[in-house]
């Protein structure tokens, strides 16, 4: 989608803030509802939705792993703390990349997760 998407410079200028908001967790709902006609905002909203879904899924996996490890031995919970920190830093890095792309008016897919589409 990113390679085929040509954006109008006026669309970019008018919807930069919406595109930036898309990367801040559940705030992806703001551009989803307020800028649904903007191809630029929709592209970044899609990226933000994917990022949010992956964040929630990773947290669920880490909590389940934490419960399992706690049943084995409470000391093993350190592992889930380390995994949680690594995942959190990775998600933060992707969000920052997305925000920078949106602020620069660029339509670039996020590394690793950018190829997936929810919004058409």
Distance between the termini: 9 Å
Q: Structural class, from secondary structure content? A: mainly alpha
Proportion in helices:
55-70%
Rg over CA atoms: 17 Å
Q: Main sheet? A: none
Model regions low in confidence, pLDDT < 50 over at least 5 residues? none
Average pLDDT score = 93
Can you count the beta strands? 0
Provide the succession of SSEs: HHHH
Oligomer: single chain
Shape by Cα distribution: elongated
Q: Count helical runs.
A: 4
Strand content: under 5%
Describe the structure.
The chain has 120 residues and is mostly helical. The protein contains 4 helices and no strands. It has helices spanning 9-21, 29-34, 39-72, 77-103. The protein is elongated and about 60 Å long. The termini are close together.
Quick synopsis:
The chain has 120 residues and is mainly α.
Note the main attributes of this structure:
120 residues; mainly alpha; 4 helices; single chain; 0% strand
Which helices and strands occur, and which strands form pairs?
Elements: H1 9-21, H2 29-34, H3 39-72, H4 77-103
């Amino acid at each position: 989608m990113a390679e085929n998407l040509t954006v109008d410079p006026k669309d970019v200028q008018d919807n930069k803030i919406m595109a930036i908001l898309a990367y801040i967790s559940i705030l992806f709902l703001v551009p989803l509802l307020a800028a649904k006609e903007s191809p630029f905002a929709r592209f970044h909203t899609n990226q933000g939705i994917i990022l949010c879904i992956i964040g929630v899924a990773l947290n669920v996996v880490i909590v389940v792993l934490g419960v399992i490890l706690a049943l084995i031995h409470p000391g093993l919970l350190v592992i889930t703390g380390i995994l949680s920190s690594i995942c959190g830093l990775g998600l933060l890095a992707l969000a920052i990349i997305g925000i920078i792309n949106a602020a620069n008016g660029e339509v670039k897919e996020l590394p690793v997760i950018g190829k997936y589409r929810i919004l058409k």
